[in-house]
Design brief:
The chain is an alpha+beta fold and 136 residues long. The chain has six helices and seven strands, in the order H-H-E-E-E-E-H-H-E-H-E-E-H. 43% of the residues lie in helices and 26% in strands. Strand 1 and strand 2 form a beta hairpin. This is SseB protein N-terminal domain-containing protein. It comes from Microbacterium oleivorans.
Length: 136
Amino acid sequence: MAELDAAAAASRQAPADAAVQERLWRAAFALERWLFLARGSDDEPTPFALSTDEGAVIFAFSTADRAHEAALGFGLPEDEASRMLAVPLPAAAAWVASYAEAGVEALVFDAPGNGAMAPLSNLAAMAVYISQNPST
């Protein structure tokens, strides 16, 4: 988690620096799983999404604590703020990218503290690039 937090801090300082952004996403893709706030029924849960100026976005988190804190900040009641989906990587990237068909535009990671955003249309390609090009 230390690498992810360090990369997120660097990303906030240099949001236009491609190398800094790559470091952040490499750290996010290095996690065992991404967590999503669960909506809908227990039998068919879906990830929490909001409409923003950029379109509909899905939120993913590195830890349950970060997800819970964000859920409360979004105004979800406590019982809903504690419902989460844990999706292992690298499958999480393809799974969340599939929501583009439903009109979701982007993924926001670890909001509000980090808030890194990636268009869903780029997410699967990012996962492939990172897996095929290990950092040196």
